[in-house]
Design a protein that fits this description.
Radius of gyration: 19 Å
Structural class: alpha/beta
CATH topology: TIM Barrel
Strand content: 5-15%
Number of helices: 15
CATH architecture: Alpha-Beta Barrel
Helix content: 40-55%
Strand order of the largest sheet: 1-2-3-4-5-6-7-8
Shape: globular
Largest sheet: 8 strands, parallel
Distance between the termini: 24 Å
């Protein structure tokens, strides 16, 4: 893989971000004064600016002709999810107006042959629910996702959602997801209110996932501590990438990554802050007493064992950091639909000077190897 003569590009003036659907200040909501027309036009401008600014001479996606794409970060919003989320704040239009038909239309428009369905950032209020209520809600939403897979055969896979705060319920949902729904993997949040996935209380969940040699995919959100910290700054802009980092370090330094070698881990948005901070973490964690136990091959090697996807993180500078840190074989394509369009993501990815071989690996090859349902 080569990033030929990469030049730093000025960031676009508008960057499409995965907005927290439960943040009343989210810019997708008309109350903030940003119209849907401005949002979409700004996103198109950002995509064009990123391609032009990369300085690679790559043609836009539309000019490269049809090619296979598998999207591993693709959201669905069933009625049960909309109803539950609406209890905790106004739903932005992208969630209200979501439909299976619009999802397929967007996929077809951008030659996305298959997508793995998952939930977007869930309301943190879910982690305050009584276990019985949360179990029922999660089961209904996972059933809805499985129905979409069945209704559109060959177009979708499913990462079934599990919330670690209810360990007993999570174990039951894992069994149901794999044995009944035939899910392709499990989705978790990067945090569960005031706990992160490496918490020792969650060990039984990862023991079962390791036994099943499962794929575990993480989607970020802002935890109890860190939502709406800075006025006018949405959580999705900065807290989501940070919480991906918190989740990864929680799993690393609590020994979960070292103990459960048969889990295949996938982290959103090119790993958030991890590629940038990895060597800092490696150096400053040297005095940790059990460092050889939690990182048998060293911190860097442990982080390089993980898999990452590119949703809303496929611009030149971000991909330069990621692909300097991990090989192409550890990177998969993601879109973050409907918050970010496939056109925007693909134009960024195809405009940074990757070889055709590397593009094919990221756009579909690596997902095919990991997820049997995605194989052509």
């Amino acid at each position: 893989m080569q990033l030929s003569h990469m030049q730093p590009a000025a960031p676009p003036r508008f960057i499409a971000s995965a907005a927290d659907p439960h943040d009343k200040s989210a810019c997708l909501d008309p109350c903030c004064g940003v119209s849907r027309r401005f949002f979409m036009s700004g996103m198109a401008t950002a995509g064009a600016a990123a391609v032009a600014g990369a300085g690679m001479g790559a043609k836009p996606a539309a000019a490269q002709g049809k090619r296979r794409v598998v999207d591993v970060h693709h959201h669905y919003f069933s009625d049960a999810f909309k109803e539950s989320s609406g209890r905790f704040g106004n739903l932005p239009p992208l969630i209200k107006n979501w439909s299976a038909a619009r999802m397929l239309e967007e996929m077809d428009k951008n030659n996305v042959e298959q997508s793995i369905l998952s939930l977007a950032s869930v309301p943190v209020d879910w982690f305050r629910m009584k276990p019985e209520e949360l179990r029922k809600l999660v089961r209904t939403i996972n059933d809805d996702g499985a129905k979409l897979v069945q209704d559109h055969k060959g177009r979708h896979g499913l990462f079934a959602y599990v919330s670690c705060v209810d360990v007993e319920g999570s174990l039951k949902e894992i069994e149901y997801a794999f044995d009944t729904l035939k899910a392709d993997g499990i989705e978790m949040s990067t945090s569960f209110g005031d706990k992160w996935p490496g918490d020792p209380a969650f060990m039984p969940v990862f023991e079962e996932l390791n036994r099943r040699k499962a794929i575990v995919y993480f989607h970020p959100l802002a935890p109890f501590c860190c939502g709406n910290l800075v006025p006018a700054v949405q959580d999705s802009w900065i807290e989501y990438p940070y919480d991906s980092g918190r989740a990864i370090l929680s799993l690393l330094f609590n020994g979960t990554l070292a103990k459960f070698r048969d889990i295949q881990w996938i982290f959103s948005h090119s790993g958030g802050a991890i590629p940038y901070l990895a060597h800092r973490i490696d150096w400053q964690s040297r005095p940790v007493k059990n460092i050889k136990e939690v990182a048998p091959e060293g911190v860097i090697k442990e982080l390089q064992r993980l898999n990452y996807e590119t949703a809303n993180a496929a611009s030149g500078p971000t991909m330069a950091a990621l692909l300097k840190f991990v090989p192409v074989s550890k990177v998969m394509y993601g879109s973050d639909f409907p918050y970010v369009t496939n056109q925007y993501n693909l134009e960024n990815l195809r405009g940074i000077g990757l070889s055709e071989e590397d593009l094919k690996a990221i756009e579909y090859g690596n997902a095919e190897k990991m997820i049997p349902r995605m194989r052509a």
